[in-house]
Design brief:
The chain contains four helices and three strands; from the N terminus they run E-H-H-E-H-H-E. By secondary structure, the chain is α/β, with parallel strands linked by helices. Strands 1-2-3 form a three-stranded parallel sheet, with helices on one face. The radius of gyration is 12 Å and the shape is globular. It starts with a strand and ends with a strand.
């Protein structure tokens, strides 16, 4: 099965993050566009395998704020750890 790739770049806001992910991964229509829903759909609804590549994370951290950035990163890391078919690749 081919690996789906979601490449995040120049993420400046949560709505932009949700849009980028929805455009590249088959997120369900009921996706609630909040951080809890992001975890839920990535952990349970998106069929793997898939890889999330997040580029320019320093710029994203500054734009999102340190706390929001840390929460998003924790969600992505948790999903990658919990699922055997998800890879997370972070580029600063």
């Amino acid at each position: 099965m081919p690996v789906k790739v979601c490449e995040l770049r120049h993420i400046q806001s949560l709505p932009q993050l949700y849009e980028a992910m929805a455009a590249q991964l088959p997120l369900p229509t009921h996706f609630g566009r909040n951080l809890d829903a992001l975890y839920d759909v990535l952990a349970n609804d998106v069929v793997g395998p898939f890889e999330i590549i997040w580029r320019d994370t320093e710029a994203s951290r500054k734009a999102l704020g340190a706390d929001t950035y840390a929460t998003v990163l924790e969600i992505l890391q948790t999903v990658a750890e919990e699922r055997g078919d998800v890879t997370l690749d972070i580029h600063h």
